[in-house]
Amino acid sequence: SAESLRYSTGTGGEGSEGAGLASSESGGSGFSLAAAALPERRRPGGGRPRYEVVRELGAEEVRWFYREDRKTWKPFIGYDSLRIELAYRALGAAGGPGEPREGEAVEPVCVRSGLYEVDVANAESYPVYWNQTEKIPVMRGQWFIDGTWQPLEEEESNLIEQEHLNRFRGQQLQESFDMEVSKPVDGKEAIHSLKLSRNHVDWHSVDEVYLYSDATTSKIARTVTQKLGFSKASSSGTRLHRGYVEEATLEDKPPQTSHIVFVVHGIGQKMDQGRIIKNTAMMRDTARKVEEKYFSNLATHVEFLPVEWRSKLTLDGDTVDSITPDKVRGLRDMLNSSAMDIMYYTSPLYRDELVKGLQQELNRLYTLFCSRNPEFEEKGGKVSIVSHSLGCVITYDIMTGWNPVRLYEQLLQKEEEEEEDRWMSYEEQRLLEELYITKQRLREIEERLHGLKASTISKPPVLKFKVENFFCMGSPLAVFLALRGIRPGNSGSQDHILPRTICNRLLNIFHPTDPVAYRLEPLILKHYSNISPVQIHWYNTANPLPYEHMKPSFLNPTKEPTSVTDGDSVSTVPSPTTSPVMVRRHYGESITNIGKASILGAASIGKGLGGMLFSRFGRSSTTSPEGGKEGAEGDEKKATAVGTPPLSHSSSGFLEPIVELEHRIDFELREGLVESRYWSAVTSHTAYWSSLDIALFLLTFMYKHDQEDPDKSTLEAV
C-alpha cells in the first residue's frame, strides 16, 4: 500500500504524513520524497537510516546506476536517483512497479547535470546535446555487495527482495546496527534459503544475508575451509546489504551551470565521428577533478558541450573517394578524411558549407541549452569556446565575419588604383571614367536596396551569444591570418586581430612541440617573437604566481640581437608570420627522422601535414618555406630592428618594453621531463584533452569573476 511506502517506523510514532508524493493506489506505486522531514538515523560512520521493522524499500534506499563503456556500474547522485525512482513507480501498475500501463508514457528523466535523459521503461540513458549510437544501460539497485556496494543484477535482486519480504515482512530489526560487516556468524544455521540459477542465498538472520556461488570449484573450496574450522559464511559467501549505503536526498544535486563551454573539433572527424564526444568527456571529467580541488567553495559550475559539425556536411559527396588510387588505400583514406578538410576550407566552393555547418550547430546547442535551462540567460550565464586545430580558424571566421570575397574586392580596388597611374589614351581614359561612374552608381543602388531590406528585416546576429573567452588549442590561426595580410601593429591591443566587442578574451594554448600550433602575439607586436610565451602552471604547483603578474622574458636572453639580416632571420629571429613555438632548442635530428615523424604524425593524429614538421624542426642553413615568405616582403627590410620600439632588459633577462600587450595571449604547456621530443611532436597535437594543467588554466579564467575571496584563493583572479 501507499502507507507502507511512507517513511514510517515500527511504532508509528514518526512519519511524514502529507509531506510526500504518495499514491493511494495499491501495488506499491506510492512515492514519498519527504526525506527532509525525518530525523536522520544513519549507520555509525555514515550511511543510510535504518527502520525498526522490515517493510518495502523506501525510494531513498533504492539507488539507480548507469554503466558506460562496459565498465563498472556508477551510482547516480541522490537527486537523480530519487527522480528516476519516482518515474519508475509512476510507471507501475497493479502488477507491480516497472510494468507500464497500456498507452501510458512517462516523461524521460533529466540526469547528470542535464546532459543525459533516462528512459525508465526501456532502462536506458542517452545524451541530450549530441548523438550517440550506443545507449547507456541503467539499473535499479536494491541489494548490494558488501565492500564495493555494487548492485546485484536486477533479475536476481528482484527475486531476493521478493523472498525477503515474503519471509520477513513486519519482523523487528535490531535496535542498533553497526558497520561491523565481519561480525562472525559461526555456529548460526541458515534460517532461510533461496536457490537461484547459479547461486543461492542464505539468511542467517534478518540482517545477515550471504550469497554463495554454486560452481563446483566454490563447493570444493567451501568444504575444505569448513573442515579447517571456518564458518560457511566467512569461507566463501559474499555478504549482501539491502538498501544502498547512503540515502538519496533531493539536496544531493549538482550546482547550477553559470558558464557553458562549446568544444569545437578540428580536422579528421570524418574518420572518427565520435572522437570529439570522447575528447570533450575527457576534458569535462578532468575539469570536475579540478573544480573539486580548487573551486569547491563556489555554488556554480562550468559545463562542457561537444560541437560535432563535420558529419552533417555533404561537401563533394564521394567524388574525392572515386578519384583516389587503390594503392595504399588505408593511408589515402586517412589523409582524405583529415587533411582534405583543410583543402575544403580553402576551396571557395565548400568553405561556406563548413562555416555554416559550425555556425548552425553552435546556435542549435545554445538554443537547446537555454530552452532546458531558462534561468541561464536571466542570471547572466556566460559562454566560452574551446577550439582545436582548424576549428580555431573556422570559429574565428564566424565570430569576425571574415570572408575571402572581401579580400578579392580589396585586390580589385588595388588593381584599379594601379591602373590609374599608368599612361592611357584619351578613349581608354574616357571609358575608364564611364566605368567608374557606373560602378559608383551601382554601389549607391545596392546601398539603398540594403537599406530598404534592413528597415523591414533586421539581420540576426551570426551567433546568438556573446563569446566571453576564446581558447585556441594547437591552433594554426596565426598562419591563416598572416597569409591574409595581417601584419604587426604598434598598439598592443587584442583588437588588432580580434575586437574585444566580439570576444572579451583571446587565449592561445599550445604544447611546445605541437607541429600545427603557431603563436599569435607577434602578429600584434613584432618584438614579441623574441619574448617567451607564458608558461602554464602545473596542476599541483603550490601558490602559483597569477598570470597577470608574470613578467615577460627573452627567449634567448644571452644573445639579445639588435638587428638581423635576411639570412639570419630563419634560424635566429622568427618572423611574425611563423613564430615557431620552440626557438629555444635546436633539434639535431636528421631530415630522415623528421620525415618518419611526419608520417607517424599523419597516421596517429590524422594530419597530413608533414611539411609543417619539416618547417618547424628542420632548422638548417637552407631556405625554408617561411624564409622564402619573409624574403618576399621586400629588400628594404634587410636590416630591420628586432622590435619596434627599443627594448631594455635587466641582467635577469626580464624585459621592460615600451609597448606591451594589454593581455598576454600565448600560453605554453610545460614539457614533460622524460618525454621524447620527436615522439611528442607526433602526439602533442592531441594531448590537450586530458591535461589537468589545461583544465586548471581554463577554469582559472572562466571562474575569474566568480571568486568569492580572491585574496585567500591560491588562484587569484588573473
Task: Characterise this structure.
This protein has 718 residues and is an alpha/beta fold. Among the domains are: 169 residues, no CATH class; 280 residues, Rossmann fold, CATH 3.40.50. The protein is 32% helix and 13% strand. It has 19 helices and 20 strands. The strands form four sheets. A seven-stranded parallel sheet has the order 13-12-14-15-16-20-17, with helices on both faces. The N terminus and C terminus are likely disordered. Belongs to the PA-PLA1 family.
Major sheet: arrangement of strands = 13-12-14-15-16-20-17
Estimate what percentage of residues fall within beta strands. 5-15%
Report the helical percentage: 25-40%
3D shape: elongated
| Rg from Cα | 33 Å
CATH uppermost class of the domain at 256-404 and 463-549 and 664-707: Alpha Beta
Distance between the termini: 59 Å
Write a compact overview of the structure shown.
Residues 1-49, 557-580, 620-649 are annotated as: Disordered. This protein has 19 helices and 20 strands. Strand 8 and strand 9 (199-203) form a beta hairpin.
Helix/strand layout:
Blueprint lengths: L1 H4 L57 E4 L7 E2 L2 H13 L18 E3 L4 E4 L4 E4 L8 E6 L1 E3 L8 H15 L23 E4 L3 E5 L5 E5 L2 H12 L4 H5 L1 E5 L13 E9 L10 H20 L5 E8 L11 H4 L6 H18 L4 H22 L2 H4 L3 E7 L1 H11 L3 H18 L4 H31 L10 E7 L3 H7 L19 E8 L23 E2 L27 E2 L26 H15 L4 H8 L7 H7 L8 E2 L24 E3 L8 H7 L8 H11 L16
Parallel strand pairs: 12-13, 12-14, 14-15, 15-16, 16-20, 17-20
Antiparallel strand pairs: 1-2, 1-6, 3-4, 4-5, 5-6, 7-11, 8-9, 9-10, 10-11, 18-19
Helix pairs in contact: 6-19, 9-11, 15-16, 15-18
